[in-house]
Design goal:
heterotrimer, A alpha/beta, B alpha/beta, C alpha+beta, A: alpha/beta, Rossmann fold, 3 domains, four-stranded parallel beta sheet, 8 strands, B: alpha/beta, 18 helices, globular, binds flavin-adenine dinucleotide, binds iron/sulfur cluster
């Protein structure tokens, strides 16, 4: 069930093997990339399966949208590779399991989907979110995080249930068929991952940034430009939905934030290192974090802007210690609105 | 008894005896008496035992309950969010049970009687309530922007009168539009409530609300944080909705906007947070902003400050009943020693109960040469140093 | 009993003596499940001299004295089993001196953990003491005397091992000094003299009243961190502990297991450093020591987000106290069994069995003491204080746990009176005879906390 849609033939004729050649965590020449690609496709052992730090970036790098990363994860699981040690993975499976405590709720548009992170509902405040409904809870967790754990099986099992729950408990009796996803994870899950696995999604999805832009345009008169240099930290799941990235610049333009030019931005973005730490690669994580933050500091950023709570909590201490202010995109917009 | 359902949930772990950094005992009643029974946890367990009839009603039990100053330290520091908010409510409910049983300490009974009969605890004449204001020629309230409510200590206590005077003077100079109720003013009832006499409190509050309404009062400035608390949080529950300010808020508006630039000598002062402004209403900044705006003042903090401030020992009617008075471990004496330790020359207060307690304590400690107590308005008025 | 309240009042002041029913009620019980035992009087002395006089008086009248600090053992150790006087020592809370170079503090017995912690933070920020996770009003003396353990116990051992010396009022009223302070103005160690401290450590207040003591202090470093290692196979844990303690880097090593996260054992390791680099270096040492388990895919480090680290680095950890509200009923008690490390898995399985048998959720927390020399294995059971049946159930579970612990070869720590009896049954009879001979010599009238360490 939920077979991954990828096409062997496309890879066979692919000349650049961007997926592996552009990987920031593995050095490879074209020939060895081709060989590793072959191995992965054929279900053989490949060093990629053990060395991959699960940054999701190859999903973006593949010019043919042929899902190289999803395939890596499928293969890892088939081969019994545990990127995160088994006990830690099992523990997460328990912690993040649906609690079956969802209750029907009448919602209205716009509805903000906060996924499993009920504790972040406090972010939904002020004029940006006036009149919105909120849904959240373990039973509607998008489950995309299992990509880091070689657990596509869990995604296949839990994501359709989460979708069912959203439909049954929220959409069915409300006049809503569109959700604004607060996190890239959910937007990625419902617009990119689900279709790739043939999982049906009965609602349409709006990225938070698109929503913010609409609101900022409505509230244009109240914006005071921030006039600050900001660095943006891309979350891994934004690699699944690169088409949303132009929104970042559009938001910054609207609120007068100056996105610094730096090495590790946009397609060269580095991970927040949560996944690497979970994968017991502390030294890689130290190195990535340092390079990333030094890069922001050198570029003169005053704020480090996040959209992902996991990135925020992983990096905020280091960001603060380097003299920058860590902040969520929605909060930054609120500052511009004087709230 | 109301809140009886939380009594057994207290673990008697004693976090509530302390401030957040555990420096020293911070429940004023336990600090003075030292027996476990006088700690918040002791009260919880004794109330439970009393309800279970494991112990009887005794004067000792009454003393234990009425020595609680309602300072809120226990509410602040108990580590059980599920019920901590109601600790003080439970203690007040417990006092209320003893009120119903007429098993209260004599001084408490005197207090209630005086309030009931005279509208103040000192049995002073109502017509003398505004004597402090004669010299200032204050207007009676008749539709000015604010009612200045001075309360019983402001009306009759020597220190309180000074506070009221300085505050009124500053407001006049600052062009604040206000009037007073004079002999129509009556006790705010906060201590009556904190001593569990709910019927009397309701009676007082309803009368006051009526009085305020008749006079057309919308905005109130109080001298005492106790009255501030009561008007703001308790009167509103009885239908009395007013915009309530403590005088420190007004002083802040008048002078507290700028940061002072000090050249030359400066005087170290320390600020004692009144429980009903701080812990009960989460306002720690207004008075400090005022102090910072005065040139020549160096604000130094005591170890226990803001939400960790040690109560002066006057709350819960103790400024009158004096259950906590006497001896080197009375909270007020401990507190003035703490103030002295900071090197401060002035202990600044913002409550007429605090000033009363500390004036006495400084005398008992024999440190009047080294430490002065002044209320915020007097500090502003005198302009120190 | 003869009326001695007047005499006591003359010694300590009338406001510090009570025979009121309120004090008798509160001082008859603690937060655990032991049945109340009522005192006749509660006194609060302020000086060693006052204590001396009280002890002399009690000797003359043959009235029992139970010394009390915070009264927080949960095993009812400060209940006066034979009535008499409960002596609450918390007025004696003066911190007398800190020796920075030789890293020790001399303090009175009633000083609380929290007060010392705050005092050092303010006056000697480069030093800290090993704080137990008991509520901060627990006393230094009470904790040392029961062989407590705390946040530096992995590197420093039991708190009784951190004791440098004491001043004690003997059951007959003499004041003696133990340790270097007996011979020197300094309180630097118990060596090289004959070590008399053993006459008072672990005796539950039956051999004398400690009035002052000196304990060791440790460097308080700027950078602190915590690592959490998770396994699903309890058989691995003893080896995990063995390896990680072998690095001599962790200050505190705890293992937590609960029915909220059944089947997992989480090993928390805290460590500290003067620089960021040193911290990373220590982290790497810890990691390296556990690499084998990661390679074998039987263990791994959890990511502890910086925002959550505060909870794990908090001293004392409030969430241990908060376990008391697990049943919405204000109570828990635990059997802290001192055991060798290799018993970990057996002890764990036994704990789950007992909890399942009694239908109580399991909560087990283990503190490693010394470089993996032994561990304090705590089986904690929460109960609803308002529910008699619940209390009875937990009492039974505690008793069963004590029995099984002794069968395994462990020893219940700070044992409640019934558990002391169980221990004595397992004890070498000559040892117990020696204990009794010592007691008879020190306390001929048997006034010190009688009912403890008796059959
Ligand atoms: C939530 C919680 C967590 C805990 N965590 C820990 C922990 O991490 N580590 C730990 O070690 N303990 C822990 N405990 C157990 C206990 O609370 C502590 O060991 C505490 O420090 C004991 O000190 P106390 O002052 O309460 O002693 P008390 O209970 O007052 O006394 C203990 C014993 O010593 C005797 N005694 C006390 N003072 C003297 C004296 N001056 N002279 C002679 N005899 C005396 C008493 O008679 C009694 O027998 C915990 C308890 C709780 C409730
Ligand atoms: S996944 Fe994409 S980039 Fe990689 S080899 Fe296939 S087609 Fe090329
Ligand atoms: S997910 Fe990232 S690390 Fe893994 S192969 Fe793709 S680009 Fe490389
Ligand atoms: S009131 Fe709270 S903090 Fe105080 S003893 Fe009870 S449970 Fe502990
Ligand atoms: S309110 Fe204050 S005086 Fe009353 S019990 Fe709580 S801490 Fe003690």
């Amino acid at each position: 069930m939920y077979e991954l849609k990828y096409d062997k033939d496309i890879c066979a004729t692919c000349e650049t093997i961007d997926c592996l050649m552009r990987c920031q965590y593995m050095e490879m020449d074209l020939e060895s990339a081709r060989q590793e690609r072959e191995r992965i496709l054929n279900g053989e052992d490949s060093r990629v399966l053990t060395d991959c730090v699960t940054c999701y970036a190859c999903e973006e790098y593949c010019p043919f949208n042929n899902h190289p990363f999803y395939l890596i994860v499928d293969r890892q699981e088939e081969k019994g590779i545990w990127p995160v040690p088994k006990p830690a993975t099992n523990q997460q499976l328990v912690i993040m399991a649906p609690q079956s405590d969802i209750a029907p709720k009448k919602i209205q548009s716009p509805t903000i989907n906060m996924c499993a992170f009920s504790m972040l509902e406090g972010c939904i405040r002020g004029s940006l979110f006036e009149g919105t409904s909120i849904i959240s809870g373990s039973d509607i967790f998008c489950n995309i995080m299992w990509l880091h754990f070689a657990k596509n099986s869990t995604i296949r099992e839990r994501l359709p249930k989460a979708i069912d729950n959203i439909r049954e408990y929220y959409l069915k009796d409300s006049d809503v068929d569109e959700l604004v996803h607060f996190h890239d994870e959910c937007y990625g899950a419902y617009t990119h991952l689900a279709p790739a696995f043939g999982i049906e999604v009965p609602f349409s999805s709006i990225h938070l940034f698109e929503y913010l832009i609409r609101r900022l345009d409505d509230l244009k008169d109240r914006i005071t430009p921030i006039n600050q240099k900001v660095a943006y930290q891309r979350p891994c799941s934004s690699r699944l939905i690169p088409e949303t990235q132009h929104f970042v610049d559009e938001i910054f333009t609207r609120i007068g934030a100056d996105r610094v030019d730096r090495k590790y931005d946009r397609e060269n973005a580095l991970c927040c290192t949560f996944a690497q730490q979970a994968q017991q690669r502390d030294e890689t994580a130290d190195d990535v974090l340092k390079r990333n933050i030094d890069d922001m500091v050198e570029a003169g950023a005053a704020y480090c802007v996040f959209n992902c709570p996991a990135c925020f909590f992983t990096m905020s201490e280091a960001v603060t210690n380097s003299g920058m202010m860590p902040i969520l995109m929605s909060d930054l917009c609120q500052i511009a609105l004087g709230e | 008894m109301e809140y009886a359902e939380i009594l057994h949930r207290c673990f008697r772990c004693g976090f509530c005896k302390l401030p957040s950094d555990y420096t020293d005992i911070n429940c004023p009643s336990y600090l003075k008496f030292k027996f476990e029974t006088y700690s918040p946890g002791g009260r919880m367990w004794l109330l439970k035992a009393w309800l279970n009839k494991d112990i009887k009603t005794t004067p000792r039990l009454a003393e234990i309950l009425f020595s609680c100053t309602a300072c809120g330290n226990c509410v602040e520091h108990c580590v059980f969010p599920a019920f901590k908010e109601d600790l003080l409510n439970a203690f007040i409910a417990g006092k209320g049970e003893l009120v119903n049983e007429k098993a209260i300490p004599p001084k408490v009974r005197d207090y209630f009687e005086a309030i009931y009969l005279h509208g103040n605890p000192f049995k002073r004449l109502r017509k003398n309530r505004a004597n402090w204001a004669t010299e200032l020629n204050l207007e009676s309230f008749s539709g000015q922007t604010y009612l200045f409510y001075v309360g019983c200590l402001g009306s009759y206590d020597e220190n309180g009168q000074k506070m009221a005077y300085h505050t009124a003077k500053l407001m006049i100079d600052g062009g604040v539009s206000f009037g007073i109720l004079g002999d129509k003013e009556s006790c705010d009832g906060n201590e009556v409530r904190s001593m569990g006499e709910m019927e009397l409190f309701k009676h007082i509050a309803e009368k006051n609300i009526q009085e305020f309404r008749n006079a057309g009062v919308e905005n109130i400035i109080t001298l005492s944080p106790h009255a501030y608390h009561s008007f703001k949080n308790d009167y509103s529950q009885l239908g009395g909705h007013f915009n309530v300010y403590h005088y420190s808020h007004i002083l802040k508006d008048l002078i507290g906007k700028k940061e002072a630039v000090t050249s030359g000598t400066s005087i170290p002062v320390t600020f004692h947070d009144p429980c009903y402004l701080g812990r009960h209403n989460n306002d720690y900044q207004a008075a400090r902003d005022v102090l910072r705006a005065i040139p020549g003042i160096e604000l130094v903090e005591m170890d226990r400050t803001m939400n960790n401030a040690l109560c002066c020992g006057g709350g819960g009617g103790n400024f009158y009943t004096d259950i906590l008075g006497g001896g080197p471990d009375s909270p007020a004496r401990v507190r003035v020693r703490e103030a002295l330790e900071t090197g401060a020359e002035v202990l600044v207060v913002a409550c007429p109960q605090c000033i009363l307690m500390f004036e006495d304590a400084i005398k008992s400690e024999g440190i009047s040469e080294k430490l002065n107590v002044m209320d915020l308005s007097e500090v502003v008025q005198s302009g120190l140093p | 009993m003869k009326n001695i309240d007047k005499e006591l009042a003359d010694i300590v002041g009338s406001e510090f003596v009570s025979n009121h029913p309120e004090e008798k009620f509160i001082y008859s019980r603690d937060m655990g499940t032991m049945e109340p035992a009522f005192p006749d009087l509660v006194v609060m002395p302020n000086t060693t001299e006052e204590i001396q006089k009280i002890v002399q008086l009690a000797n003359r009248e043959e009235i029992p004295i139970t010394p009390m600090g915070g009264g927080l053992t949960l095993s009812g150790l400060v209940r006066p089993l034979k009535g008499g006087i409960v002596m609450d020592l918390k007025r004696m809370n003066r911190i007398i001196a800190v020796n920075e170079k030789s890293r020790y503090v001399i303090t009175e017995a009633g000083t609380s953990q929290g007060m010392l912690q705050a005092y050092l933070k303010k006056h000697h920020p480069s030093l800290k003491h090993s704080v137990p996770d008991a509520p901060p009003i627990a006393t230094i003396a009470g904790n040392v005397l029961i062989h407590g353990s705390g946040h530096i116990s992995q590197s420093g051992g039991f708190h009784s091992e951190m004791l440098n010396g004491m001043e004690v009022v003997m059951p007959t009223g003499e004041v003696v000094r133990i340790g270097s302070c007996a011979t020197s103005p300094y309180w630097f160690s118990r060596a090289p003299l004959p070590d008399l401290a053993g006459l008072f450590l672990g005796w539950a207040g039956t051999t004398g009243i400690v009035t002052k003591l000196a304990i060791k202090l440790y460097p308080n470093r700027l950078f602190n961190d915590v690592k959490a290692f998770v396994t699903e196979d309890s058989e691995q844990v003893a080896e995990v502990i063995h390896r990680v303690t072998g690095t001599q880097v962790a200050e505190d090593v705890n293992v937590v297991m609960s029915s909220r996260m059944p089947g997992f054992q989480i090993v928390f390791m805290t460590y500290s450093a003067d620089t960021k680099e040193e911290l990373t270096w220590k982290r790497n040492l810890i990691r390296a020591s556990l690499k084998k388990f990661i390679d074998d895919n039987v263990g791994g480090f959890m990511v502890v987000l910086p925002v959550l680290k505060g909870d794990f680095l908090e001293v004392p950890m409030k969430n241990i106290t908060q376990f008391a509200d697990e049943m919405q009923g204000g109570g828990f008690e635990y059997i802290g069994a001192i055991m060798p490390i290799e018993l970990f898995s057996e002890a764990y399985r036994t704990g789950i069995e007992i909890a399942d048998h009694f239908g109580i959720p399991h909560f087990i927390i283990v503190r490693v003491v010394g470089l993996g020399h032994c561990m304090m294995f705590a089986y904690a059971y929460a109960f609803n204080r308002a529910d008699e049946a619940d209390i009875k159930k937990v009492q039974a579970a505690l008793e069963d746990t004590n029995r099984k612990v002794l069968q395994m070869g462990g020893i219940p720590w700070k044992a409640e009176a019934p558990a002391q009896k169980q221990i004595i049954e397992h004890m070498d009879p000559n040892t117990f005879a020696l204990m009794n001979r010592i007691r008879a010599v020190l306390d001929p009238k048997g006034i010190m906390n009688p009912g403890n360490w008796e059959v």
